[in-house]
Design goal:
Strand content of chain B: under 5%
Shape of chain B: globular
Largest sheet of chain B: none
Distance between the termini of chain B: 12 Å
Number of strands of chain A: 8
Order of helices and strands of chain A: HHHHHHHHHHEEEEEEEE
Oligomer: heterodimer
Number of helices of chain A: 10
Largest sheet of chain A: 4 strands, mixed
Distance between the termini of chain A: 40 Å
Number of strands of chain B: 0
Structural class of chain A: alpha+beta
Order of helices and strands of chain B: HHHHHHHHHHHHHHHH
Chain lengths: ~325, ~475
């Protein structure tokens, strides 16, 4: 087998599975956005996971015409302090919760940003009412080429291949043995027991070798000095980044939040991760959409995740520990240069 | 009396399991973007689906195992009915918490989420949920202790664990099912005690506002959950040890290897749970390494004793294929394949990439749905057929076997691929800009899961016919 064909074979999951299974999804997810204002960008990053404008209900209500249904003051409070309104048992907030079952998360939107978002919602609603066109901010609009298929991470691919190999072996053995049933023979099982002894003594060094090899590759190392330390506080349903520790909710008023838009590419990064409420997770997805590194985020403890993000670019962060009804909208991003 | 109790357990299993499968289909349908209006139901459905299946398959495997050991030791009908009504009460409370209270903290209710819902479910729902677990835990603890007590009437603990096989006199002969049930009940008591501590700390927080240590709670919770799921598996395997020889006409007896294997399982199952906490870096590293070592070592007794022993029994035997033998063999294979996927995920370096992706439901659905569930369903059919002796249509048996295989592994393949492509588990919908491909796996998974459901319904029709007659026979 040539080196090229081996390489092709090693990419089989990506080449076949992604082009065959995933392409429809990738095509349907190609989105072109018409409005590039700050509010539109904010809508795309913080609201679109749950809402559309004229595209129908999703996790939350369709926001077409919402500025006519609600007062500006109420919208302002709902966008900036939804948790407070829910705690106060505001009638509209409770009605929305009863209808959609998912509480609106506090995404730390400032009053100025909320104003801009409300204006954006009003403008978009008017435009859509006039044109009758689908919402370009939330509906697929064709034309742009589909994104490149996402390959698996290297370790994920290795794990899949090992699994497929073992699963096929087990299936073949079961099929072979099953095929022999139904025609009783008088043979004894002594040969089988000898075989079992041989397999056992072969398995022991293999297991020990595998343990020796893999246990040296754990993510727990604390050697060396990080090039950059970032404090990460998690809470339902957001990630908060800072240069100083945030260990309790009261710290939020005194510690400045930061955006991670200039982390050193290839540098050793240390994320000190804790939670302000329930258990969360801090998972960095690489540009290809594969998990690069992750760690749990637990109240009362700080987990230190060390990793290097080799390529300059933007990395998404997701929570991979179920943390409540809006778990799937909890995300952030960081950029390396 | 005992038979009637068994039949009621079977009836409850046959009613609940298809409903729980439907909840699974609902979840995959929502993830596939096919049911956007039902999105708010995802997490309550996930909670009920997970807890319901863990509970149903613990009691179902317990019942099947008790049926097979009832031939060796005297079981108390009173305890069986106590376990039945205690479980029904626990399930009713759980249904109230989820269906009326919209409780949705997931099947392992990771502390302190049940008490911090941001208004998504009321406090009374959390308390009702905790009460449900209290009732179930107390009932199952009594059930486990009573089972050990029943075994002790014929065997000492040392004998039930097979230790006398290392002496000169290997009498009394201990059936493998007794050995496995004894190991499972001891582990179960440890696991339920852990559950009791978790519940006490939850109640303490709920009523005093004083928080417990989150890392301690996580250790206790996963010790409880991990052991409970694993002993359910072992109880199913205990039934296979007893039922398979009936069809192969070869005995499957206890020997020193079996004893070493199952005694070591008792130790391994109590230590392997650490693999659930690999990504809690504050956990002492030594415990993380113990988790991986125990998980790797656990493959030896499972593969070389149980699976190898079963294959030796089947090889060139006179075994005929019907729904029981098909499900037992498929179940053992699913246990092997799912176990292998679990061992891969128990590698710390790999878990750092696959943790809480769809790889996790992939492997546990493999050894649960295509492993334990099939073993127990095979055992149920065997039991009812031996009681009723109704005529069998082998063409339907083959159809059920084929649909189960295709539907089951097709649905699992979508989980494995999703995991390898980093699709998170427990997401109602997938963010289109990061993991839009998750919904495509869900679409295909939905198709295959529907095939599995069709197979299950045909199986249920076959079994209900026998169940009705068995009730009639028991009444007579």
């Amino acid at each position: 087998m040539t080196r090229a064909s081996l390489r092709l074979l090693s990419r089989w999951p990506d080449a076949v599975l992604l082009h065959g299974l995933l392409l429809p999804a990738l095509l349907s997810s190609s989105v072109a956005f018409a409005d590039t204002s700050a509010a539109a960008t904010q809508f795309q990053t913080q609201c679109i996971a749950c809402h559309t404008i004229g595209g129908g209900k999703q996790v939350g209500p369709d926001l077409l015409g919402v500025t006519e249904r609600r007062t500006r003051d109420w919208l302002q409070r709902w966008i900036t302090q939804p948790d407070v309104l829910l705690a106060e048992k505001d009638a509209i907030a409770m009605e929305l919760l009863a209808t959609y079952q998912v509480p609106m998360p506090n995404q730390q939107v400032t009053a100025e940003q909320a104003d801009a978002l409300i204006d954006y919602l009003a403008t978009r609603s008017t435009e859509l009412a006039q044109t009758g066109a689908p919402d370009a901010g939330t509906m697929p609009v064709d034309a742009s080429p589909p994104p490149a298929p996402q390959p698996m991470g290297e370790i994920q691919q290795t794990a899949l291949w090992i699994f497929l190999g073992f699963a096929a072996f087990i299936a073949v053995v079961f099929a072979w043995v099953s095929a022999s049933a139904g025609s009783a023979s008088s043979g004894t099982a002594s040969g089988a027991y000898t075989l079992r002894t041989v397999i056992f003594w072969l398995s022991v060094p293999i297991l020990v070798g595998l343990l020796f090899f893999t246990l040296r590759k754990t993510p727990y190392s604390t050697e060396g000095t990080p090039d950059r330390v970032v404090y990460v506080a998690t809470r339902q349903f957001e990630f908060i980044f800072s240069n100083e520790p945030i260990t309790k909710s009261e710290d939020l008023s005194s510690v400045k939040r930061i955006t991670l838009d200039a982390l050193p590419a290839g540098g050793l990064l240390e994320f000190r991760v804790t939670s302000l409420d329930v258990t969360h997770n801090f998972a960095i997805y690489d540009e290809q959409g594969a998990v690069h590194a992750q760690v749990q985020s637990m109240p009362g403890y700080v987990n230190r995740l060390r990793t290097r993000l080799e390529k300059p670019g933007t990395y998404n962060v997701l929570c991979l520990e179920y943390c409540g009804l809006a778990h799937h909208v909890m995300k952030a991003s960081l950029t390396t240069r | 009396m005992q038979r009637k109790n068994t039949l009621w357990w079977i009836a409850v299993t046959l009613i609940l399991f298809p409903i729980l499968v439907l909840l699974g289909l609902l979840m995959r349908g929502i993830q596939a973007d096919a049911l956007p209006a039902a999105q708010g139901l995802f997490y309550p459905a996930m909670t009920l689906h997970g807890l319901g299946n863990v509970g149903v398959w613990f009691v179902a495997s317990m019942v099947v195992a008790l049926v097979v050991i009832s031939g060796h030791v005297p079981l108390s009908p009173g305890v069986s009915w106590f376990a039945f009504f205690g479980t029904v009460l626990g399930v009713v409370l759980l249904l109230v918490a989820v269906l009326l209270g919209r409780f949705a903290a997931g099947w392992y209710f990771l502390y302190p989420l049940p008490l911090m819902s941001q208004g998504a479910w009321p406090t009374w729902a959390s308390v009702t949920f905790l009460l449900s677990l209290t009732v179930l835990g107390a009932t199952w603890l009594v059930w486990s202790l009573a089972t050990l007590l029943a075994i002790s009437k014929k065997f000492t603990l040392a004998q039930a664990l097979g230790w006398h096989y290392f002496g000169n006199d290997a009498t009394p002969e201990v059936p493998p099912s007794i050995l496995i049930v004894t190991v499972s009940m001891i582990a179960n008591i440890a696991c339920l005690v852990s559950g009791v501590v978790v519940l006490c700390l939850f109640y303490w927080h709920a009523f005093t506002g004083q928080a417990a240590d989150a890392l301690l709670m996580k250790n206790l919770t996963f010790f409880f959950g991990h052991v409970l799921v694993n002993i359910s598996m072992y109880l199913g395997v205990a039934a296979v040890y007893e039922i398979l020889p009936v069809y192969t006409n070869k005995p499957w007896k206890t020997n020193r290897i079996t004893v070493i294997s199952w005694n070591s399982v008792l130790l391994i199952v109590l230590l392997a749970y650490f693999h659930h906490l690999y990504l809690d870096f504050v956990q002492p590293s030594a415990l993380q390494y113990i988790g991986q070592v125990a998980s790797y070592v656990s493959s030896l007794p499972a593969a070389l004793v149980t699976l190898f022993g079963a294959l030796t029994l089947i090889f060139r035997s006179s075994m005929k294929w019907n729904i029981t033998t098909t499900f037992l063999v498929l179940g053992l294979m699913g246990w092997g394949i799912g176990g292998m996927a679990a061992v891969i995920d128990s590698t710390i370096a790999i878990n750092a990439k696959l943790h809480n992706t769809l790889w996790v439901p992939a492997h546990f659905h493999t050894y649960m749905v295509m492993g334990l569930v099939l073993m127990v369903l095979g055992g149920i059919y065997h039991y009812l057929q031996s009681v009723t002796q109704l005529s069998e249509n082998m063409a339907i048996h083959k159809l059920v076997g084929a649909l189960t295989f295709i539907g089951g592994y097709g649905f699992l393949a979508m989980f494995y691929l999703g995991g390898a492509f980093s699709v998170p588990r427990r997401y109602a919908t997938y963010p289109a800009d990061i993991i839009s491909h998750g919904s495509v796996f869900a679409q295909w998974g939905l198709v295959f899961a529907t095939l599995f459901l069709v197979a299950l319904l045909v199986y249920t029709a076959l079994v209900v016919k026998r169940l009705m007659k068995a009730f009639h026979v028991a009444a007579a």
